[in-house]
Structure formats: structure tokens, C-alpha cells
Write a structure and sequence with these properties.
- The chain has a domain of 29 residues.
- It is built from two helices and no strands.
- By secondary structure, it is mainly α.
Length: 70
């Protein structure tokens, strides 16, 4: 008997999450220089989540030699 697709655990998060955990937000703020040691972890400012967009594949250009045919 097989397990239904909806009940299987995904191997990893495929898409970008738009909500970060507190530790992830603090790490990102520290990278941006907006977090100082000893600051309260409550009431953190908003952090923008960068989404990675896959680039479009470029079409291969045909050589003039091969497309001439003569």
C-alpha cells in the first residue's frame, strides 16, 4: 500500500519562505549592519526576503556557415 502524496514529508523547502524565524531575522540584520549586540530580540524591524529568480535560457544562435546550406 502506498502513502498518499499529501502525507509524505518534503525533502526540503522548494520555494522561498516569506516569514523568517527570529534567529534568521537577527542574522540578516547583522549582515546589513542594523543589529547591535545586546539589543532586545523583541520588536525586530521588518526584513526583506530576497527571492531567487531563475534566469531565462538564452536561445542558441546558429552560425551563418551552418545555416547557409550552400
Amino acid at each position: 500500500m502506498s502513502i498518499d502524496k499529501s502525507l509524505k514529508k518534503p525533502s526540503g523547502m522548494v520555494r522561498t519562505r516569506n516569514v523568517l524565524k527570529r534567529g534568521e531575522r537577527i542574522a540578516q540584520l547583522a549582515r546589513e549592519g542594523r543589529w547591535h549586540e545586546g539589543q532586545s530580540p523583541l520588536g525586530l524591524p521588518k526584513v526583506r526576503v530576497q527571492r531567487i529568480v531563475a534566469g531565462k535560457k538564452k536561445k542558441k544562435k546558429k552560425d551563418e556557415d551552418s545555416s547557409g546550406g550552400s
